[in-house]
Automatic annotation (TrEMBL):
C4-type ZnF: 60-75
Keyword DNA damage tagged: yes
GO biological process, one term: DNA repair
PANTHER family: RECOMBINATION PROTEIN RECR (PTHR30446)
Name of the protein described by the UniProt record: Recombination protein RecR
Annotated ranges, domain Toprim: 83-190
Coiled coil region boundaries: none
Molecular function via GO: DNA binding; zinc ion binding
Gene3D superfamilies tied to this protein: 3.40.1360.10, 6.10.250.240, RecR Domain 1
Keyword Metal-binding assigned: yes
Job of this protein: May play a role in DNA repair. It seems to be involved in an RecBC-independent recombinational process of DNA repair. It may act with RecF and RecO.
Keywords: DNA damage, DNA recombination, DNA repair, Metal-binding, Zinc, Zinc-finger
Family as reported in the entry's similarity comment: Belongs to the RecR family.
Length: 214
C-alpha cells in the first residue's frame, strides 16, 4: 500500500504545515486540502502574503518587536506614554497585551528568560538593550510583565538588580537623578501561566493591580 496519498509537492506542503504550532499530521492534511480546494481565494493570497513577510518582516532595533519597519509601529506611535516601559519575554507576550488593550506604553522584548540548565545567560537576552534605554533618563516606570514561572521570576530578579546598580551609578554622576520605579504583574496571572494563553480580563486585572517588584 502506498505511504503517500498525493504527489511530492503536496506532501511537502503537508509536512511544513504539520510543523506549525497546534497542527499535527492529520490537521495539516485537512488544512492543505482546504487551501488547495480554495486556491484562488486562500492559497494564492497566502503565498503572496508569506512572500512579502519574508522580504519585509524584521526585528525592531529599539524594542525587539517584529514588524515590517524598524523602529516598529509601536515605537513610532506618538500617542503612547514613553515614560512607562513594559518588559516582556517574547513577542507573543507583547501581542497578547496589545490585543487586550490594557496599557498604552512602550515595550521591550527580552527574547526569552534566563535558564542556566539550557545555557541561556544574560548575554543571550536583550538585557543590555534595556539598560541602554533606561540610562537615557526618559523612563519613569518599568513593568516586568514576565511569565509567572521560575525562569521568568529569576529573570525579573536579575533585571531588578541590574537596574538598581545602574541607578546607583547614575546617582553619582547626577545627584538629581530619581530611580526608576520597578513594578510587576499582580493578581490575575496564575503561577505557571503564560501571557499568550490568558484572556483579556485577566490581563487587564494584572496590569491594573501591578505593584512594586520585591
Amino acid at each position: 500500500m502506498a505511504s503517500h496519498v498525493a504527489g511530492p509537492d503536496i506532501e511537502k506542503l503537508i509536512k511544513l504545515l504539520a510543523r506549525l504550532p497546534g497542527l499535527g499530521p492529520r490537521s495539516a492534511r485537512r488544512v492543505a486540502l482546504h487551501l488547495i480546494k480554495n486556491k484562488d481565494q486562500l492559497l494564492v493570497p497566502l503565498s503572496e502574503a508569506m512572500r512579502v513577510a519574508v522580504e519585509k518582516v524584521q526585528v525592531c532595533e529599539t524594542c525587539g518587536n517584529i514588524d515590517s519597519a524598524s523602529p516598529c509601529t509601536i515605537c513610532t506611535d506618538t500617542r503612547r506614554d514613553p515614560s512607562v516601559l513594559v518588559v516582556v519575554e517574547d513577542v507573543s507576550d507583547l501581542w497578547a497585551l496589545e490585543r487586550a488593550s490594557v496599557i498604552n506604553a512602550a515595550y521591550h522584548v527580552l527574547g526569552g528568560t534566563l535558564s542556566p540548565l539550557d545555557g541561556v545567560g544574560p548575554d543571550d537576552l536583550n538585557i543590555a538593550g534595556l539598560l541602554k534605554r533606561t540610562a537615557k533618563g526618559e523612563i519613569r516606570e518599568i513593568i516586568l510583565a514576565v511569565n509567572a514561572t521560575v525562569e521568568g521570576q529569576t529573570t525579573a530578579h536579575y533585571i531588578t538588580d541590574q537596574l538598581q546598580e545602574q541607578a546607583k551609578e547614575l546617582k553619582v554622576s547626577n545627584p538629581a537623578y530619581e530611580p526608576i520605579r520597578i513594578s510587576q504583574l499582580a493578581h490575575g496571572v496564575p503561577i505557571g501561566g503564560e501571557l499568550d494563553y490568558l484572556d483579556e480580563g485577566t490581563l487587564l486585572q494584572a496590569i491594573r493591580s501591578r505593584k512594586a517588584f520585591e
